[in-house]
Design a protein that fits this description.
Mean pLDDT: 91
Helix content: 10-25%
Structural class: alpha+beta
Distance between the termini: 32 Å
Largest sheet: 8 strands, antiparallel
Shape: globular
Radius of gyration: 24 Å
Number of helices: 8
Order of helices and strands: HEEEEEEEEEEEHHHEEEEHEEEHEEEHHE
Strand content: 25-35%
């Protein structure tokens, strides 16, 4: 009887329990067991002559050896630009407010090579409690929120591993992941983080590059066509559910003044026309020909999007023509770089009863689930 109980317990232990469903997962730990993967360093900005911090109750300033060098209550103002050695701000409350945003964990002011970095250092799972609702709406279906939590966890883990010799791991913007602090937390997204605690995506034993974007416009993109590097698990896949999400289809009109200013660095002169030269199989633009009154130049659509602005040209899946009044009319599909998981695709899949496993294994091919181990 005891032997049977032992076998039953071992069988149950092999499964990662997520809500009402179970999946077979393995444990994952970094090759170097000295690597800290439970904490993340978030760049909030760079120190200036006047930086202010707020909290409820006592705010403690410590040196690199955790020696208390100052105690204050509720508010602290500091000239961070003259800090010569690292210091740490720690609150007895569960937050420190900086520039109107409350952050869990501690705030570190760290001078490095002439710059003073302001870092928020906190546990990964607490970081995710703010990231998930910063990236998607907390009102989304539970399975979409779980999928986003796993993507976000895998993404930040990989950044931690890749940047362990750098000053910070991620920032607060779309350059890495959007992070709006404790103010943004919501019970629905916090539950999604707890439900998937420690769960990541791996490929051949290593955390994947879990890129995601807003809406693919119906088909995701091969990263080789965006950044020049092909990745086995990030192939272009259909994303039919995108059509039910926001920013699936859009239109813009650009005035000649905007186009001329944005494309001035190309040195072609006043823009006469813009022509699509080639497309990838996903129908995203590969190259454009920029015709000016001085010369003509071919550029990649990814460069064109950066010059125009990613909020004005939402994706590279577009068509463009010049109107009789000189304006440029643009019609496009999707929003973002198109690589990896489409967030609006995951939303619609979840609404149609797909699980987070279905969602993630659709966008990331051949991946496995694993649970982070800090032991």
């Amino acid at each position: 009887m005891n032997f049977r109980k032992s076998i039953l317990f071992l069988s149950i232990a092999l499964f990662g329990q997520i809500g009402c469903s179970s999946i077979l997962v393995s444990k994952w730990a970094p090759d170097d067991d000295r690597t800290e993967i439970s904490m993340v360093r978030v760049l909030l900005g760079y120190g200036t002559e006047e930086e202010s911090f707020k909290t409820d109750g006592e705010l403690v300033v410590l040196d690199a050896n955790d020696l208390v060098i100052k105690r204050t209550y509720d508010f602290l103002s500091i000239n961070a630009s003259v800090v010569k050695a690292p210091i740490k701000l720690q609150s007895v409350s569960n937050f420190i407010e900086y520039k109107g945003t409350s952050y869990r964990g501690t705030i570190h002011i760290k001078p490095v090579n002439g710059k003073v970095y302001l870092l928020n250092i906190l546990p990964v799972e607490e970081y995710l409690m703010a990231v998930v609702p910063s990236e998607v709406s907390a009102s989304w279906p539970r399975e979409a929120l779980r999928a986003q939590a796993i993507c976000a966890r895998t993404y930040v883990l990989r950044e931690i591993l890749n940047r362990k010799n750098q000053v910070y791991d991620v920032d607060t913007s779309t350059n890495t992941q959007v992070y709006k602090g404790k103010n943004k937390e919501h019970k629905n997204t916090t539950e999604a983080v707890f439900d998937t605690a420690g769960l990541i995506l791996i490929y051949k034993g290593q955390p994947i590059q879990s890129f995601f974007h807003s809406n693919s416009g119906g088909i995701t993109e091969d990263p080789a066509n965006v950044w020049g590097n092909s990745i086995a698990y990030l192939k272009s896949v259909p994303s039919d559910y995108d059509k039910d999400g926001e920013q699936y289809s859009w239109e813009e009109k650009y005035k000649p003044s905007l186009i001329n200013t944005a494309l001035q660095p190309l040195g072609v002169g006043e823009i006469q026309d813009i022509i699509v030269v080639s497309r990838f199989p996903s129908s995203r633009v590969n190259e454009l020909e920029i015709i000016g009154n001085i010369t003509t130049k071919k550029i990649k659509a990814t460069e064109f999007r950066k010059l125009i602005g990613v909020t004005k040209l939402r994706s590279t899946r577009f068509g463009i023509r010049r109107e009789d009044n000189g304006e440029f009319y643009v019609k496009g599909l999707g929003s973002g770089h198109g690589v990896g998981m489409s967030q609006w695709g995951s939303f619609a899949m979840a609404k149609n009863q797909f699980s987070y496993r279905d969602i993630l294994q659709h966008y990331y091919k051949g991946v496995e689930f694993a649970r982070m181990s800090t032991n």
